[in-house]
Specification:
Blueprint (H helix, E strand, L loop, with lengths): L1 H7 L3 H12 L4 H8 L3 H8 L7 H10 L2 H10 L4 H14 L26 E13 L15 E8 L9 E7 L12 E5 L12 E6 L3 E10 L2 E5 L8 E2 L7 E10 L4
Parallel strand pairs: 1-3, 1-6
Antiparallel strand pairs: 1-2, 3-4, 4-9, 5-6, 5-9, 6-7, 7-8
Helix pairs in contact: 3-4, 5-6
Length: 257
């Protein structure tokens, strides 16, 4: 019980670093050697006292498996869409054909590179909830670290990027009448570039306030998160605010049990 309480008190990225190190069965000193830093630095990371730099998050991603890699790369500020575009441009400029392992081929509108040969997609329903704008959501800053409860079959045309799409339940009323308490939203983590999301419903995350569903607007040069109910206070989206976009809401299902 004490161990569970201790883990919940540290940031999600700190838990992920500890879980990654324990999964590959090395001690802090060995991870420090691979990361070219001190064992004390690793200890401070795992206790949540010091957040790794973007360069260190990238290094951690390079050492991890697929899910760990994307979690750490996203913490470094790398967006899946930007990574895919960069790889595609690099391959074109070098005159190379994309290799299957790079997963960057676009097959039937699937940017994740998975061959979408059927008309349905298998989308995970995650074991977490997002708060409606102004409400506190589950404390996660990346969808990739959240366990799934089950997989749901969805029409393929509903999901342009199935490999990056997840389902989450909403708690709260500030997004009504569009999205109600208890609805399930489909979020596409491939679409996280804010410059392409103005006017869209998005999922954002904050280390202390967890995940939230809101609508993104831009007024002059200011990006703002806003509830559908206009009597709820809006939030300015900036680096100082601590909020980051983790994906675009594609659609939602109302009245689900």
């Amino acid at each position: 019980m004490k161990q569970r309480a201790k883990r919940s008190a540290v940031p999600e990225w700190a838990v992920q670093i500890t879980d990654f190190r324990e999964r590959i069965r090395i001690n802090q000193a060995e991870l420090a050697r691979r990361m070219q830093c001190s064992a004390m630095t690793i200890s401070r990371w795992e206790r949540g006292l010091l957040q790794p730099s973007a360069e260190h998050f990238i290094q951690l991603g390079n050492l991890g498996n697929k899910n760990e890699a994307w979690f750490f790369w996203e913490m470094a500020g790398i967006q899946p869409s930007k990574m895919v575009d960069s790889l595609r441009s690099s391959l074109r400029s070098n005159g190379e054909r994309s290799k299957p392992g790079l997963a960057i081929n676009k097959a039937t509108s699937n940017e994740s590179g998975e061959n979408n040969t059927t008309n349905t997609a298998q989308i995970p329903l995650l074991k977490a909830f997002v708060g409606a704008h102004g409400s506190v959501g589950a404390r996660h800053i990346s969808l990739r670290a959240i366990p799934r409860t089950r997989t749901v079959s969805i029409p393929g045309e509903w999901c342009p990027n199935p490999g990056y799409t997840s389902l989450l339940r909403v708690k709260g009323h500030s997004m009504e009448p569009s999205i109600s308490d208890g609805d399930i939203v489909a979020v596409d983590a491939f679409q996280a570039d804010r410059t392409e999301l103005y006017g869209s419903v998005v999922i954002v995350a904050h280390e202390e306030k967890g995940m939230c569903v809101s609508r993104l607007f831009r007024y002059d040069s200011v990006d703002v998160l806003q509830a559908e109910k206009r009597d709820v206070e809006a939030t300015i989206l900036s680096k100082a605010s601590g909020w980051r976009i983790i994906g675009r809401v594609l659609w939602w299902i109302s009245g689900t049990p």
